[in-house]
Amino acid sequence: MTEQPSQRHPTEINLHAKSRLLTIVFDDGASFDLPCEYLRVFSRAAEVRTLNRPVTGKETVNILAIEPQGQYAVRILFDDGHDTGIYSWDTLYRLGQEKARNWSDYLAKLEQIGYRRAEPEQGEKRIRLLYFAWLAHKLRKESEELTVPAEVGDIASLIRWLGSRKRGAAVLFEAGRVRVTINKQFSEPFTKLHDGDEVGIVPTSPTPPATPDLI
């Protein structure tokens, strides 16, 4: 059977393994962040599609490799051994477009069978923070170890939380003012935090902001 040409084609495919997230940008400008768990439970492999109950227990599944399949698809190899899922460009596009609805339906099915998802990395996390350049001067410290609350689960929420900890500090952590590394690797706002991470916060400009209210 001849494969039908894909209507959409990706221009970027990036795996963020630490966050268990696959980012895909298509030629029409659409961009989707697809969790590995989502891709796994919605695999197009026959053994998944023919199940009479939803796939469970994949909360922490990750992607090991992504293999091209001609010009129309990729095969995704997951770390739980599942390696037969072929995802065409059109399938990935639909999964991105319909993610909210698909995920809501999936959670409803889990509830029907009495399965409760175990959200990974819940609870407090102990991390080490490194401050650089004028940020270290403004905060009067080059490093510190902190226990962050459970609701601080990624870089975006960490930056918001740091800006709220000290009066007048929010301006130091405004969008675009700093870039963040985790364990010496540059991160994205959605990069997940884990217990024991070393987080470096580096100003993007040599000129510090005015902080008249900083205490």
TrEMBL record:
Coiled coil: none annotated. Residues 13-93 form the Gamma-butyrobetaine hydroxylase-like N-terminal domain. SUPFAM superfamilies: MoaD/ThiS. It comes from the Bacteria. Keywords: Iron, Metal-binding. GO terms for molecular function: metal ion binding. It comes from Thiocystis violascens (strain ATCC 17096 / DSM 198 / 6111) (Chromatium violascens). This is Gamma-butyrobetaine hydroxylase-like N-terminal domain-containing protein.
